[in-house]
Amino acid sequence: MFFRNFDFATKYYDYESKTEQVMSLDTPINGWYKFINGVLSALMVADNKLYFLYGEDEILITDSHRVILKEKSKKENEFVFFDGNKELARFLYDLPDPKFNVSPFEYIDEEDFKWGNFIGKIVNSKERQRNFVTNLMELL
Description:
Elements: E1 2-5, E2 11-14, E3 19-22, E4 31-36, E5 39-46, E6 49-54, E7 57-60, E8 65-71, E9 76-83, E10 86-94, H1 115-123, H2 126-139
Parallel strand pairs: 1-4
Antiparallel strand pairs: 1-2, 2-3, 4-5, 5-6, 6-7, 8-9, 9-10
């Protein structure tokens, strides 16, 4: 099972072996990932279900999950992942400088090139969850 790196088009993470690899763009993927301060964060599709991965935690996304984003500075945002009122994950992530950031992918929204925003919009929207799962399942 492979995840594509959010920032580098040909960089992949092999979930079974826990290693990063450089592969071709036509490699089938089960999600997207980014390391935040050395910790794996990812959105994964398995068995037609959507999961959020953070470190060793693998969380099936349900109606009770939500993401809150807080601007900490012009260069950094905070991502907080909840199940109801229980906090499951929190991290700070750097905001790319739009003048220098050349994304390897096209996004639906201009904000989607920010990792936390990308995850948050999917977790917080049933429609985006369905689209994310459907799009990845079509590629497998």
